[in-house]
Amino acid sequence: MTKDVIALTQRMPDPSAMLAGLLSGGPDKLVDTTGEGAVVRLCDEEGRPLVSVEAALLVQVEGEAERLLGATPPPVPYWWTEARATTGVEEAERLAGTFAARLAALADGSAWPPEAAQSLAVVKTDGVSVAPTPAAAQPTVDVLTDKVAVVIQDRPVVAMTAWLQDAFHSTAGAELGLQVVTPAGTTLSPAVRASLSNWPSRWVVRDERDGYYDGQSGAVLRWQDGMFAPVAADDATADDPRTPVAASYQEVTDTGEQQLAITFRTVHPADDRLVLGGALESIWRELTGEPPAGWGTAEPANLPWSLRQMTDLAYERAPEPTWFVVVGSPDRPGLATVRVSRTKAGVEEYVTLMFGYGPDEEPPVDSLPRAAEVLATRHRLLSMLVQVRKARRDLAVPPRFEGPGVPLAFVLGADEVRQMPGDRARNTPLAQPPVPLGPKTRPAMYYPLPGDPLDLSGWQDFERLVRHLKGE
User: Fold this and answer.
1) How confident is the model at residue 3 (pLDDT cuts 50, 70, 90)?
2) Are 17 and 102 within 8 A, CB to CB?
3) What Cα–Cα distance (Å) separates residue 228 from each residue in 150, 177, 199, 248, 342?
């Protein structure tokens, strides 16, 4: 498998430290660059990469190394330098470990995982060769077929790193799926989960009892026809193509932990005065009493929270869409993804946000109407859906069944309400009447829903409400 080794250092790895690391294979080891110089590679005699090293990233946000690696980094700010060893080559893994160990020693830090970086000695790689291109062309990809690219990860959390982001982009451009294979103990960052939900992309979990299964659905998988695909049950038929569910996926315990999940859309006129991220900051403050801690275009989120910097980056990339990840402080687990795109209506922000709560904590449900009103009156809210679900406080996605979210509330923005004929937005089939938000002459509507984690009938109410609002 591809082996990741990471150096976490107090000082920026200077050219001499990088050179010492790159000499891990001796002075005659081939070195080249890719990605416009952002990635340096140690290569075999044929010029194929043994180890790929990404440019060091300055992390200025507390808690990211702990969240993604379970590691203790130097105090912020610190430097995060990733090295990836090529699949199945023991010497390559040792090269990556020695590279990280040398960087940690010369730039005051540590390496993760500790057992991979125990030697500073030169690694002998004479005669070692690796897979030919195209499999070795993309440093993240371990197996490439005409249907999928397979990435094998052995990290505590599969995060939306720059490496993995590149893999998603390249496979999408080639019209391929991306399948991520992990050990049973690995979890996903919420930022990755949605990207692995579209067939044939999937999260493949290695399992002692069933071999492999889908970490999000539990379906038992096998490698067949060039990709991991579900196994048909013994009693499956063409009309009922059922798939067995892995036993490990069904081993669920109720810890009493919960998550509050919020998705919303805003749209703004495209002008020079626009500042992005204000809606997210507002609802974050309303629900936690503090702003987000940091943001980035990949994980780890490395930059302190800044509306202006986010806006500037989105302007630089326009008219192409921009994706951000936003995190909270370690004391209040929170994570959001933000997609900014240009539409006919203006500049749209699509936000997926979640907060985690322990058994002795309660989600701030009473603050939701106020938070919704702030978005509706100050940030041009189009719509918002709020759910509560039984899930982990740390927000990590385990390869186990987690109950579906149950809707707590739906909000329709003032412009959407105004466009509806008559009193359709006010007179609904729900037992509880909607709550107007904002000015009486131009209100948004807050629709309370049952929100009982033990009662999925809230989804029936939500579907009835949506059909009613559409005039169906």
Assistant:
1) confident
2) yes
3) 9, 11, 11, 18, 36
